[in-house]
Design a protein that fits this description.
It contains 8 helices and 5 strands. The protein is of the alpha/beta class. The chain is elongated, with a radius of gyration of 23 Å.
Length: about 270
C-alpha cells in the first residue's frame, strides 16, 4: 500500500480492569453531567478506585467525554473598583458575604428569580431563595433571618441592582453595622465569588432541570444547595466541602481575636 512502517500502529487492547474503570467513568459522567475529569477522579477515589487524574484524563479524551465551555471575550476595562473581590478579600468566616440574582423560567414560560447568598471565605451557600419576584422588603427579611442563623458579616458585596441599593436594605444594613461593598457598575467580575457560584448553580442544576412550578423549583434548588454545602468538594478549599471547611477552620495565632471593622465608606 506504499505506506512506511513508522505510520503503522497496533489497535490498543483494553483489559478487564480498564474496561470496568471506563464503565465507572461513564456512569460518573452521566450522574455529574458538568463535572470535568479532575472532579470525576475525586469521585472515583471516594468509591475506592486507585487511579490518578492523568489516567482518567486519558480515558476521558478517548471516550469523547470532554465538554468545552463557550466563552465570550470581555471588552472594556478590567474591574478596578476598590470594592472588587480581588482587592478587598475575605480573610475569615463571616467577613464578607456576597449576593446576586439569577433568572430562570418554568416549563410554561413563567419567570422565576433566584436570590443566592454566599460566604466568600468558606464558599458556603447561605441561602438560595426562589420567587416570582422579590420586593425590597423581601431581601431585607431574608438577610435578617440569615443574621440570626449565622451571625452578622463584617461586609456584604453586591452589584448595583435596585434591590440592593434600596433604602430599606441600606438602612437595615446600616443599623446592623454592616459595610456595603458595591462593585463598579458594569463590572460583574469584581463580584467574582457569587458570579462563580451562580455559574455552578446554572451549569450543574438549573440547566439540567425542567421546572413545572414554583414549588418544584424551590424543592430542586434546596436539595442542590444541601448537596453543594455537604457533599460537593471544592478545589479552593483543599478538596473539602464548604460545610466541613467552615466547621474545621481555625484562625491563625497571629490573627487578632476580634478583627477590626473596615472604616472605608463603600457606599
Amino acid at each position: 500500500m506504499n505506506q512506511h512502517r513508522s505510520v503503522q500502529r497496533y489497535n490498543p487492547k483494553i483489559n478487564e480492569e480498564e474496561r470496568r474503570l471506563i464503565d465507572a467513568i461513564h456512569k460518573m459522567a452521566v450522574k455529574y453531567k458538568r463535572f470535568g475529569y479532575r472532579r470525576i477522579t475525586r469521585e472515583l477515589k471516594k468509591q475506592g478506585w486507585r487511579v490518578n487524574a492523568k489516567r482518567v484524563h486519558r480515558f476521558w479524551k478517548a471516550e469523547g467525554l470532554q465538554l468545552r465551555k463557550k466563552t465570550r471575550k470581555r471588552r472594556g476595562k478590567d474591574g478596578s473598583g476598590q470594592n472588587a473581590c480581588h482587592i478587598n478579600k475575605a480573610e475569615f468566616p463571616n467577613h464578607i458575604w456576597s449576593y446576586d440574582f439569577v433568572e430562570e423560567r418554568t416549563e410554561r414560560g413563567g419567570k422565576l428569580r433566584v436570590l443566592t447568598i454566599v460566604d466568600e471565605f468558606t464558599r458556603q451557600c447561605l441561602a438560595i431563595e426562589v420567587s416570582r419576584k422579590f420586593r425590597k422588603l423581601d431581601v431585607a427579611d431574608i438577610l435578617s433571618g440569615l443574621f440570626t442563623k449565622y451571625g452578622k458579616p463584617v461586609a456584604i458585596r453586591s452589584d448595583n441592582g435596585s434591590e440592593f441599593r434600596s433604602k430599606v436594605v441600606i438602612d437595615m444594613l446600616q443599623d446592623a453595622g454592616i459595610e456595603r461593598l458595591f462593585v463598579e457598575p458594569g463590572s460583574p467580575w469584581e463580584n467574582g465569588y457569587i458570579e462563580s457560584f451562580n455559574g455552578k448553580l446554572r451549569d450543574e442544576c438549573l440547566n439540567g432541570e425542567l421546572f413545572l412550578s414554583l414549588a418544584d423549583a424551590r424543592y430542586v434548588v434546596t436539595k442542590w444547595q444541601n448537596w453543594y454545602n455537604t457533599e460537593r468538594q471544592h478545589s479552593r478549599l483543599n478538596w473539602m466541602t464548604p460545610s466541613k471547611f467552615s466547621a474545621t477552620w481555625v484562625a491563625p495565632d497571629s490573627a487578632p481575636p476580634h478583627p477590626p471593622q473596615p472604616t472605608r465608606n463603600a457606599a
